[in-house]
Amino acid sequence: MTIEQKKRSISLLLAGFIIFSSLYVTQPIFNGLSRYFNVSLSDISLTLSVSTFMLGIGLIIVPMFNNIEKKRMMSISVLLVSLLSIASVFATNFHLFLVIRGLMGLALSGVPSIAMAYIADEVHKDRIRKVMGLYVAGTTFGGMSGRVVVGILTDIANWQVAIASLSIINLILAVLMVILLPASTVQTPNWVSPKQHFIKYGQLLRIPAVLKAMSLAFLLMGTFVTIYSYITVRFERPPFSLSESTIAFIFILYLIGTYSSINFGKLSYKLGIKKAYAVAITIMIIGIALTFITYLPIDILGLAAMTFGFFGAHSIQSSYIATLTKSSKSHASTLYLLGYYVGSSLLTMLGGYIFIHLEWLGIGILSLMLTLTAVIISKSLFKNA
Known about the structure:
79% of the residues lie in helices and 0% in strands. By secondary structure, the protein is mainly α. The chain has a single domain, classed as Up-down Bundle (Growth Hormone, Chain: A), CATH 1.20.1250.20. The protein has 16 helices and no strands. The protein is globular and about 55 Å long. It is a multi-pass membrane protein. Belongs to the major facilitator superfamily. It is found in: Cell membrane. InterPro entries: MFS, MFS_dom, MFS_trans_sf.
């Protein structure tokens, strides 16, 4: 591996870390934020849903600025996100907090689709799955670290200190990413009108495989985020009654996802995409089923299996979408991620209402239904893969 390849890999890892650690900081402290702002649990879920929804909207907008070099776009994004995250700790009004979280989601959109397109353009096709797996690993580690740091520091001090500390760390990492990331070698195209972009989106949406890949992203990401959002609330209540610091360590399970995302990329070369994906989603279903048992060690085991399976499936899905079109790769990546984040937003909101009325039983049933639907779609999508 050349020095430039190492710099590119490290930079993409950092980009994934910054984005996901910033996006999900409110997830482990839903109860604490609910008490601070004096709003319901379903309202607090908006702190996550608004960010992911605006991220989805941003993903449609970002490709319209295709005349901006990819490194510059990602650099602006990570720096702006870190600064907005710092600003959020000064919000004393719930609606102002939501506005800042929404702006963060919009700023975050400058990385995901651009990073995937950057990988597709700059990395040899034989290494795409491995590099994509590394980027996904960065998002996994970022998601874990952000939640753990915020959960522990909230228990020690308060949520403002927790989020501010993480945001300052991310700002430093963002500067490092800007320094290390090599500029794109692919010539930056001339500006293209929004109409032309929507024509490309329309063309891709007429491809059944693209719609199926979007559906898988919607279903699995929605399931994953919903489970982690409300199992933390479940663990704070009897019979578990765990502290926020203890619950924060549950997110260390994301390290399993780091291992999974890298190795399922490799496994797909050995077994083929269809078989590797079947293994990943089967493990995910078994994990969800285990969480129905009200016994902490079994619940943790179930979460671990669900996490392992999800990141394995996501690694395969995210690399597969890039193979569905020879041109408009950034648009294809955008549509995949649109399904990914809209699923996270809408299903987390739905999960909030279900949890209020049916508690964990409702969340578990919803998760199994969504995942089994994904199984049916994947059989069709990967039929010849």
